[in-house]
Design a protein that fits this description.
single chain; 71 residues; alpha+beta; 3-stranded mixed sheet
């Protein structure tokens, strides 16, 4: 979502709530000057992207032993 700096000033509370779910780009004179975002969102997205990467039968101890034997 993109809003003007004036709109942000007039409705700060509204945009603080919205920023929990989506990035808010603030513009001034038609150019993006800032981004209002949830600081935890990047961590959540990163964690979600990792699900499904490891096989279900993966065993941490076996993987560690395999790495040590490869050296």
């Amino acid at each position: 979502m993109s809003i003007t700096a004036t709109e942000l000033k007039q409705n700060l509370g509204k945009y603080l709530l919205l920023s929990a779910n989506e990035d808010i780009y603030i513009t001034k004179n038609g150019k993006v000057v800032a981004k209002l975002t949830n600081p935890n969102q990047n961590r959540v997205n990163t964690a979600k992207s990792l699900f499904g990467i490891l096989p279900e039968d993966a065993n941490l101890e076996d993987e560690k032993a395999e790495r040590l034997n490869a050296k």
